[in-house]
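Weekly puzzle thread! Below is a chain. First person to post its structure in token form gets bragging rights.
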Amino acid sequence: MFSTGPSPSHGRHARPLHARALRRRHPVVTAALTVSLAVAGVLAATVPPAQAAAPHGSTSGCGGRGVDAAALIRYESDIVIKAPLATVWKLQTDVERWPSWQPPVTTAERLDPGRLETGSQFRWTTPAPATPTTPATTLTITSTVQELRRHRCVLWSGPAIGAGLRIDEGVHLWTFQKVQGGVHVHTEETWTGPQVEADVPTATAALGAGLEAWLHDLKTTAEAHDEPQR
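Winning reply:
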């Protein structure tokens, strides 16, 4: 997912799969390219440090399927949200309302009716600022749900295309698990395509920053929604 501001650190567990390479080669990544496909943006930021442990149990798949194991660009992270599972799930799967709580998502539309399920498709857009190698553009992302288990997990994939910028395929996994005090949310994403693979460390750092921003927005919105009305 793309974003336009720095990636905050809010007590989640970030597990960048290329963290050592990033620290050696890119201690600070500015104007970095990122898409969370499931969404998209550019964040001037470093990858946040690991800060929280995940609960026991598998978080790396949905219905036996996961992200692209062969992808060079990949990132995963976790967060605990102090809100009911139903609240978190509804926010994440009510795609058309994403722009109301995720600033980087400028438009979002379902391409089929009914509740989000396996086979559902949706299209959304996000601005991507200019980088040293790509122009400023708006990415259009068309996502197809590959697996969905209600209140447990969702996996979607699809291309992100803009003028002068293309990610051939992003594969994005989300899992949700009740824990003491809330919901443990795990996310993983991979990107493939010659353009982003031309600079794997920068693209990985950008992807990580975008996912951290998404987790922060999801946590902030879900916890605010669950606050008692005064």
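Puzzle host: Confirmed. Bonus trivia for everyone else. Helices lie at 19-25, 85-93, 194-197, 200-225.
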